[in-house]
Structures are given as C-alpha cells and as structure tokens.
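Folds vary. Our protein:
___
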Amino acid sequence: MKLLNIEPETIDNILNDLLKRSPNHYGEYEGAVAEILSEIRQKGDEALFAYTKKFDQADICAENVEVTQEEIEEAYENVSQELLSVIRTSMENIRTYHEKQKQYSWFDTTEEGTMLGQKVTALGSVGVYVPGGKAAYPSSVLMNIIPAKVAGVKNICMVTPPGKDGKVTSTTLVAAKEAGADHIYKVGGAQAIGALAYGTKSIPKVDKIVGPGNIYVALAKKAVYGHVSIDSIAGPSEVLVLADETSNPRYVAADLLSQAEHDEMASAILVTTSMELAKAVEKEIDGFLQVLSRKEIIQKSLDNFGYLLVAQSMEDAISVTNAIASEHLEIVTKNPFEVMMKIENAGAIFLGEYSSEPLGDYFAGPNHVLPTNGTAKFFSPLSVDDFIKKSSIIYYSKEALTKAHESVEKFATAEHLTAHANSIAVRFEK
C-alpha cells in the first residue's frame, strides 16, 4: 500500500488512478460484446446455446436451459440446515429493511375541481444476473430478488452461468428459491444479458436487468440500456476506512483486506489523522497476508489501488472521503455519528468498530448493490425504488379548466405551439 500525506495534488492523482478501474475504460472489450449481442438478437437460442458451450463448456439446450423443480430439490439436499437457517435469517433482515422503502400511490384534490397525484406501479418483469461457474453468490441472489419481490414485480427471471456439468451451484439455487425467483435459467455472460434484453424462444424479454457480473456483463448491460432499463454499471469493489488515533489498527487492517480479496482491481483505502495508526495498520496488514488464503489477489489489489492517507485534520480527512465517494465507508472515530453527519458521498456507511463491512454484504439488511467508482456522488444503493415506475395523474373539471384556460393558452402561444393552445381553446368556443 502507498503511505502518503494528503495534498491537493495527491488526491487528484488518486482519483484519476481509481477511475481507471471503471468499465468505461475497457473499450477493447466492447467489440466482442457487441458481436455477442448482435448474434443473440439475430439468432436467439441458437447463438445463446452456442456461446454457453463455448464459454462455459456446458451442453445447454431448450429442453434443459431452465432449472427444474427436481434440480431445486436436489440443491436443498446439498445445503446444510445450518446454512439454510442463516440464509433465511439474512433474508428476513433484508426484507424487513426494504419493506420500509415501499412507496404508495397518492392523490390530492382541491375545491376548485382538480385532482393531482402519482400512481406507483411495479415493473412487470425483471431479469437478475448472478455470477456463477466455480463461484457461489447466494448473498447476491437475495439482495437483487428481495427488493423486486417487495416492490411487487410479478415475474423475476434469474440467469446464472452453469458449471461444465450443466448444473447451477446448490447454494445459489436454494437462495433463489427462498427469495422467490419465478424462473432460473442456466446461461451467463454477455449472451445472457442479450437474451434478457431482446428475448429468445426460451427466455422472455424483461423490462429491467439488475445484478453484478464481469466486464463482459457490465459492458453488455451498458449496451442494451434503452432496450431495457438497468440498475447500474458496477465496477470493482472498494472500501474506505475513515479513522483517528482511537481506532484499533488490527480491526482496520482486517476490514481493508476484506474488500481487497475480491479481485486485483479492488480498492482499499485508509484515511486517518494519525500517522502512528497508519503505520500500525500497515504492520497488521503484513501479518494478515501471511495467513489469508487469497493473499496473491490481495497483494496485487493493495499494490495497485491500496492507500494509507494521512490528513492534518479531521476536516481534511472528511473532505478527501467525500471526494473519493467510496462504495463502502467505515467510520471508526471517537464520535462516528458526528462525523457521519458531515459525509455527503458514500454508498453504504458503517459506524463504529463493531460495524464491519461484511455485515452489509451478507446479513444486516441494507442492500449490498452499491455505487462504485465515485458514482456515490449521484447514485444510490439498489432499492425497492429500482423496481417501480410512477405515473402522474391529472384531472381538471370543466370549472377548474375555465379558470386556467387563458393562462395555458398564453403559455403555449409564447412557445409558438398553436396546436397546444388550440387544444385548450376549442373547449371554450361559443
């Protein structure tokens, strides 16, 4: 990790460095993704199954592309009751949190004879992408499906890459069944995104696609935006720990490494007012690296995108934290609640030394699908809002329009839109 004193030039260089991790900088992959999407759009299932054979070495066809009830039952046999209990508890926490986000239609009336309002409607169908193959991400399943269920989405289609044997990881299947997926398809990569966006004979077109994936998945979601809606273009994971001299360096080091192990592009940053703490954290990291299983990945992540930044004051530290706008922010200071009130940009904020970031990944309830690469300055975590749409409601009685028509006609005339003005005026012809 790079140990640096905070200077204006330092922060500019770090921000530029971090932005190199954005999918927007991976133009060399766009051609391959565009070709896959074009094939899916033109050839449908034929291309979908051919790409699945090419990339996943799995023999998938129309007869076996959808996971069967028998496969789900087999998955339950392979998952321990202990893990199933954990999944269900986590699910309840996630559901309880997201139910507080629900929005409802509303209508306001006036004595003048008008009614204005907003009609809230759930999306009709949603596609959820879940990474697969050798990996298993049941937490991602829960975080993407449960808000959609809470919102009232009627049809949730999950896609995930199969193993070479044509099967989906048992924990992924169990989590999907528990969360309420309506259909589960054994396809992945950019080809799965294309199938959800355009529709094939086996997989129906959806209204929105959510869920994380590799660079091909991210660029495919970007390319199909407009044909369907998407949640966001996710970048590599990141954590920023904002700490002072009261922080436990061993806890801080462990939390930084919990994100660095995701992949070589992940970012782990400490911002602190204490040089002594920074050096102690560095020492603890060296110790952890001797025993952690993914130390090669962690080391590359720390070498490329790991920083120990020392500020002269807490005000400077907060300013840097807001500038970086991290996906995950841990505040481990003497008074984390006071500091939190000054934070403007962060995906998820964890307060105090016992609110470690993995709580948010798996269990606490708030969504772990978060804005990355500085987009927390203008994006929010995945929520129930992502699975609804709103329609404006307008009603005017004849009496109400009588009072307003001249104003509307004047406004339309000022914009030289005479047909607009006429649409109102015709109702008051003598």
Observations:
- Residues 81-99 form the longest helix (19 residues).
- DSSP finds 17 helices and 14 strands in the chain.
- The two ends are 80 Å apart (CA to CA).
